[in-house]
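Worked problem 6 (solution included).
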Amino acid sequence: MFGVGNTGAPLDTVAHIIQVALTPVFLLSGIATLLNVFSTRLARVADRVDAVSKAIEGADSDEAKALSAQLAYLHRRSLVLDVAVVLGAIGGAATCGAVLVLFVGALRESTVATVLFLLFGIAVGCALGAIVAFTAEMLMASVGIRTEVAEGRRSATHTDVP
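Solution. The predicted structure is:
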């Protein structure tokens, strides 16, 4: 089983099964790191939403429009981050399922390869989707930064003109 014949010692067989089952844990560790990054980014978006919401209370109508547009933009960013978090969590759960299938398959003396490939495929697909969603959010953030810089330059130019 798992490339090990029954001719070896039982300890060798168990050690090999544990080695094979630990391989997906590296993917799980990477997914956990991504989820940590996603939560940090979401916290930054939430902080920015709080700041914009407070600023909108004392703003005139033109400023309120601009701040409202910024809130809509932050809402889109939070939705993209939500997708990344959900995909990452599904990928992590599928990875755990793959490890469980490895152990159960070893106990039942069958490989249950179809389930294992399906779970590991889901894990890799979700990790890829989470990375794509995170990349989209990062691009949205960079566009937002460039927009804020451009707005700052415009307002600085208008205040400098006598």
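Discussion: The chain has one domain: 10-153.
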